[in-house]
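Minutes, methods subgroup
Present: GH (chair), OT, SY

1. OT presented the first of two proteins processed in the latest run. Sequence and structure tokens recorded below as shown on screen.
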Amino acid sequence: MTSAAHPHGSILLADDHGLVRHGLQLLIAEAMPQLRVHLAGSLAETVQLLATAGRFDLVLLDLTLSDVHGMAGLRRLREEYPYVPVVILSAQDDRDTVLAALDAGAMGFISKAAAPSELREALTRVLAEHRIHLPQSVSGGMAATAPEGGGRELSELAALGLTERQIEVLGYVVQGLRNKEIARLLDRSEVVVKKHVTATLQALGAPNRTKLLVLLSQRGYRVPSLRAAAPAAGDDD
């Protein structure tokens, strides 16, 4: 196993059920003891921690927080903190809900309704191997065809004719960044970024970002970290 099996960094787990929140914290700590886990019980607390507690590598977000309904919380986080990837963690895992979350900018979706062993595997996939995980309602139960050691690298897509820049843009797209944020990171115009995005979708045979995430999840691709590229806290305006 590569060093990805023991990730460093910090994540924010947002769930309004105390037993679930602390149970997941223990499960993550057991599997990945070097990963710092911060807890939030509401969207307001989540936003406060994002604003004050330093940079997070990932937010695990429940869709049913007490102070927000449906996708509104996810959309707010993607709007206000676009450089922090969000994975949804919810017991509501029907196909329509999962696809709506992906369309709203989620990088993946983990079902809390899964068996403990499956939930542990899903968390490991996302947090340790940096792979996109989707529940069976969307993946169709297909096993991700990833090589032993943690998944495929996006750089392998050069075999499809994608340039290094297009693959870099693809990494940002799957994490939910909009074209304007990608343009800012790359110091390029949105027009240029849009051309890169279109080229990557066409090369992979995906009509949109949501279908792209499903495809990359099924094929076991890893997602690069935004940590080095993202602006410092307070630089989003």
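2. SY then presented the second protein from the same run.
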Amino acid sequence: MRTSFFLTLIAATALLFTGCATKAGGDGYGDGQDGAAFAGGDASIDPNGAGFDPNDPNAGAFDSGKFEDTRTRVTDAGLEALYFTFDSYMLSPDELAKADAAAQYLLNNPSHVMIIEGHCDERGSNEYNLSLSEQRAIGVRDYVVSLGIDTNRIQTRAFGEDKPAVPGTDESAHSLNRRAEFVPYK
């Protein structure tokens, strides 16, 4: 439990002091500042210095094993994916109602738990996208916890670009793939 508190503290500190920068070489879309309005300007992250193991399927778990191995997935919770701007893990005020709904779901169902899955579009290296998707999942988790949900009831998973919501290489597909999904279990 002490380790998970320490990791949560590190993640929260990283969210305060770290922003996302455009990958070296640019992405061919705009001026590369799309995420800067949310992520603090020209601050950047080093995906090789990420504070998590991207190969650990249990990243973000708190003392209870993987929820998907010990519980039954709830498929009719009606929770919507929360979307992010390009190259950012900051929660948009327009998307907070979706995280509020996930917290309310957990408050209304005290025996249920949730996995928050972080995803990216296909631009950027695999390592960068895994790091960014983990930051997205952790940021959403921290917000939900701030609403009164016990951290033991939430786990995070980072998928990077591996599980796109929709296929495609245009901005309409990219915008739907930059997301966090709420996956409840009972």
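Chair's summary of item 2: Confidence is low (pLDDT under 50) at residues 5-63.
Next meeting: continue with the remaining queue.
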